[in-house]
Amino acid sequence: MALFELERNANFEQLIRHLEASSNPDIRRRAAEILGSLETSADDTVTEGQPRSVRDDVVDALITASQDDESDEVRAAAIDALDQYGQDALEAFIGELSGQDFENLAEWKKAKVLARGLSADRAELRMAAATGLGRIGEDNVVKALVNRLDDPDPRVRKRVARALGRIESAGSVPALAKRFHADTYAVRIEIAYALADIGTDNALRELIDVADAEDEVLRRIAVDALGRLGSTEAVEVLANALSDETDIVRRTAMFSLVQLLSEAPSNASHQVREKIVGELEAADTDEVIDPLIEILDRSTETAQRRNAAWLLGRVANDNDGQTEGAQDALIETMGDDDEMTSKFAATSLSLLDSDGLELRLLELVEDGLKDEELRVKALFVLGKIGTDTSRRRLSSFVERTDSDRLRKRGFSALSKLGGVGTVAGDPI
């Protein structure tokens, strides 16, 4: 059975078997990553008649892999998976490797012990110590973490940077910035995310500077991280990146702009939205519409799809010949399982009225093979953009449809179109 099927079915027994016995290090690494991602399912899984929980079995397997696997990448993945299972799982690993008993220790004492672990001979212990310190979040360990940014093992440096980002230590920005310009790409990625999590002015300046670097990979890293800030300062930089010479940077910039809508604090969300719409309206249409359509087509993240649907109605411009493609994507998205995404798509579609849209929606409404929810949303849009053609055809439709819901929504649309003798329905 393929790993993705084991993940979908939360088959812990087989995943542990792959982690412990596969001869392929890529499979062992992926098994560790999947086991980490299934942490919630492990908590919910009960094995009848067994004294141990599934979670115990998974943690034990990950601890063993973290110590004994012959592959550096597998050991690193196993430690990150333990991180998913919480501080207790990390401490169990560190305790087994170091002989230190963490039970009943106060958090500050644990932090002190973990800080000593940053100087351990084994890289795996240093990695776990850095990860644990990031989870505890004590400010008094920042100096010890900063000192390990020059650790000889890049796997340790990655987790030190991640820990500093978790702690959100403003004092670590200069040291992080220095490594940002002189490390491997994998470490730079973690540093970029750490700077975004810290989010101070000097951290933002570092990311903005790198967003204009000659190195394509560095630009992509910085543009990706800027989407986590949720601030207007990042919007202009990301909008400029939409015209980057490299496709991957352009598309990353759009994903970051969409992500930024989700990250914006509530007291600044309106300002961020207005800033993003203004910048996107001024950008080249090809650089904006296609990536938004791609998000609707491919993304599995609900927040991304909601924001992409919302943005499309505000930046697609018929004069640029892009409305039809945007309409196609929004019509399909109106049937989304997420109600808010579906509503955003319908509202955006109503803003993109052009020749042919009314007839397309009428055909959709009248097609009894189409999903009812999709037809309901089409009726909502027709209530906003319909003409006499809609009024005539919907008058006939509500008389012959067998669906009470479609009839009610049809009457609502007719009422908005000034139909005679109709009754108002609820908005979608």
Automatic annotation (TrEMBL):
Which SMART domains does the record associate with it? EZ_HEAT
State one molecular function term (GO). Answer: oxidoreductase activity
Entry-linked Gene3D superfamilies = Leucine-rich Repeat Variant
Official protein name in the record: HEAT domain-containing protein
Stored InterPro entries: ARM-like (IPR011989), ARM-type_fold (IPR016024), PBS_lyase_HEAT (IPR004155)
- Domain of life of the native organism: Archaea
- Record's Pfam families? HEAT_2, HEAT_PBS
